[in-house]
Amino acid sequence: MEQRWLVTGGAGYIGAHTVRALRARGDDVVVLDDLTSGLAERVDDDVPLVRATVLDTDAVAGAITGHRLDGVMHFAARKSVPESVAHPLWYWHENIEGLRSVLEAATRTGVDRVVYSSSAAVYGATSGAAVAEDAPCAPVNAYGSTKLAGEWMLADVHRSTGLRYVALRYFNVAGARDARLADRGQANLVPIALDAVARGAAPAVFGTDYDTPDGSCVRDFVHVDDLADAHVAATALLEEPGAETLNVGVGRGYSVLEVVAAIARATGRSVEPAVADRRPGDPPAVVADVTRIRERLGWTATRDLDDIVTSALRAREQFGTL
Question: One of 143, 165, 170, 210 is an active-site residue; which one?
Fold first, then answer.
């Protein structure tokens, strides 16, 4: 059923892709973004853009009531692991107080449907085997801690008010639909490595002495378009009372060195990485068990690592950078 959504952080990389997917289904969307990291150019001219921070509860509530919205997709958050390790109190303020403000606005306005951007960072250092949603959560950095605490907050509000929510635990998101929506930040491996190649520099690999097949960290990389489609599919669970937590990944891991090799294939260049020391807060391997999302939503990722890297490269080429 078509619905009307407030998308916080909808001018950001993942949020903008999801806005596009929701509109393709026929849903109406209003974007709320303070544009500190989001880009107004990612928002189509016919999509209302409320320039405000999610910390402003009145602004969030005003957007909901002013546009008669049915639910909230909450993307707005800080997401850099190294930054969260260096500035944990700021992350707790931005991510936890931001979510609290959004939930207060939703409660005040009678909105009872929320899709929440969580993260695989809630799991912390796993064994390397695919991790399911009922696995113990032991985050190893402040970013993961704030995402887990956000899930607890949602669960408390659900028990108190009957809030319907789906928490989607993203694994490593990369790729792009087009140049306008591309990831231009410096928090994710693929754009960082492509930037290095564009400058003629060696992409950094932080640690090659982990207990993994080639010594570098292993992650589950999911294409941002697949992730956006998962958000659209997740709205079906909000038609009935309840709460759900789902992994969103491919179900297999690629090492950082394998990602560098994929970049070399895509660019046709010889790419030699620069090995650096491990970064604090980086778990060795995190891979999704995607059984639950397949069973609950019928959703499966359709794009692989080469698709991800090729799409990110194509987006950069449209800027004339590679």
Answer: 143
